[in-house]
Amino acid sequence: MNSLDRWGCLVILASIAVACQPAGPLATATPSPSSTAASPSSSPSALATAAASPTPAASQTPPAAASCRFPVASPDSAGNLNLYFLDVPTGAQTTPKLVALQSGLLTQTVDKPVLLGRTLAFGFYDRAFSRWIPADSGAVSADGAHYAYANGGSGNANELHVVDVRTGVDRVVASGVKYFPLDYSSKGLYLSERNAGSGLPTGSGVFLMDLRTNAIRPLHTSNRTEFWTLIYRGFAYGGDINPADPSPHGLGEATNELVRLDLATGAVVRFQYHPGTAVYVLGITPNGQLLADVGTGPQIIDAAGAARSIPGTPAGAFAFIDSQHTWLLTGGEASSATEVRNASLYVVSNGRAVHQMDFQWGPSDALVGACR
Questions:
Q1: Is residue 372 part of a domain?
Q2: Neighbours of 275 (CB within 10 A)
Q3: What is the CB neighbour count within 10 angstroms for residue 29?
């Protein structure tokens, strides 16, 4: 399985960002609170790239696939999940198949071996085993053979599990902790610590578990409220809450600036601070560019930390990234649990959003894997 394929994810920009992979490193110096809060966007000059090579240009984006199929999860009112495939460019859909049942806080698969898990989104279609699994994409190993999940909510002690997809063997690797899977990598299992008593996915720490010994060591701790969403090439990316914000978005739990952590040195860069706005990392495009929502929909963040729009992006777009394409979707909000939504699909090609097709899907349907 391509490592980027496991990061394919739907991002609902107005509520939660389930990120894929981040882009190349920004600066290693941490801006002072005063300089960070001075304007809606940190100065690009303060975030000069430390990478040996520049971020690839958008023109290197490959053209859209002539034909492929997205796996789509479709939840029902009881929390159970059906799976179907959506064809591009025809919009044709296969007959939905029941793949998972809600079991308390956990989700249980219908197919055998039975797999248990917990996901913040709608799970992940594991192409290596041709089945849906109850895990967030980042919590799945690159070969699709294992995944990790935490059995409790944010702010509460829970158990951390690792599951063998082939056999269904589910083993507890840590208990009495507040860790949640962040990235299942060849170096071990990266974890975030979520301390929000309200159950929201906010926290402050980044940790690494040795999957041979189950030993956990801290890589970063902070008294800031940080939401780490992904690991890439020695850096963790996410968002945090800048305390200088005079009017935090919503109830104050939404992150309002982007943050990057150097896992080797511990250096932190905070950038793209937007007071009163929800700011999220969305992922990395196939050509290595950071994609984020800084309050106005998907934006490309360059190596200097500056944001720019993708020409042709429709208003209210969702973003989905797989190993070959950056996809943008519009669909509107459903007014009822049974309403069918009219949706449009775009692909980013040569730096622009290009319309691919119009189609219909359910009120809560979500893409859960790469288009193949």
A1: no
A2: 18
A3: 13
**Confidence class for position 107, pLDDT limits 50, 70, 90:** very high
- Write out the H or E segment, with its range, that includes residue 33: helix 33-36
Q: How far apart are CA 228 and CA 236, in angstroms?
A: 7
CA distance 61 to 76: 36
Give the CATH number of the domain where residue 192 resides: 2.130.10
Question: Which residues lie below 8 Å from residue 15, measured CB to CB, with a gap of 6+?
Answer: none
Q: Is 363 exposed, middle or buried (0-12, 13-18, 19+ CB in 10 A)?
A: middle
Range of the domain at 192: 5-367
Half-sphere exposure for 244 (CA within 13 Å, toward CB): 14
Residue 122 inside a domain? The answer is yes
Residue 31 lies in a domain: yes
Global confidence as pTM: 0.84
Count CB-CB contacts under 10 A for residue 155: 17
> Is cis: bond before 54, omega within 30 of 0?
no
Amino acid residing at 246: P
DSSP state of 199: S
Give the C-alpha distances (Å, rounded to integers) separating 50 from 221, 271, 281: 23, 15, 20
List phi, psi (to 5°) of 158.
-140, 180
Distance CA 132, CA 81 (A): 10
* Residue 180 counted as domain residue: yes
Digit-coded pLDDT (tens) for 54-101: 233 444 555 555 689 999 999 988 889 999 999 999 999 999 999 999
